[in-house]
Amino acid sequence: MSEQIEMVKICKVIEEAESVRTFIFSHKMDFAPGQFIMVWIPRIDEKPFTVSYHTQEEFGITVFRLGEFTKRLYSMNVGDQIGVRGPYGNGFNVSGKACAIGGGVGMAAIVTLATERDDIVIVQGAKTAVSLLYRERFPNMVMFTDDGTEGRRGFPTDYLSQLQEKHKFEKIYTCGPEIMMKKVLDFCLSRGVQCEASLERYMKCGVGVCGQCVCDGFRVCTDGPVFSADVLSKINDFGRYSLSKSGKKVNV
Which fold does the domain 92-198 belong to in CATH? Predict the structure, then answer.
């Protein structure tokens, strides 16, 4: 793909969880885990999505139904087309004995790591059992739910010490609620474990022009969305603030 919008055809729709679907497209794409694409629906809008599924002939995005854009996407069926451009940004640097921790739809950014390294321990946190993603795709992942309806009760970050003691991770990847990722970063810094996190910020262009996704001087779309622990520790807004659609600084 490139800067030019290409029309791609939906070839499969997977019901992942409550209000969450994965749309698979029949199209080749050069891609590194952690990168994102801009998705265009004519006469509606253009939005960024991470690639959550990738093979030689297909790729997919995982979508949480929320606003007008995603509702329109949910109305589409196999055979319908949307526009895409990209991929953009920095991906994960895959190395060492690793763990990938995802929360909510942030799981979409880390699951493609498993296609690069099938020995990565995948950890998922969700509010409740019906919110858990990719259970059939990754039957051995470690699961946590806020209410204890499946897996362990609580948050993945509550058990980081036990997981680290058991597996001796050299690197931890994470994407999800920023408060969760900040706890993962703090843990890694305290233990001397490498860490990479994928940040989510409101994006309009995806190529570093509009400045909407700026975070302490870093443009998430071009400098990220994946950042190393060294960089994250210098970003004061990480875990605290982001910019709203109107450009106002708000709490994350």
Answer: Rossmann fold (3.40.50)
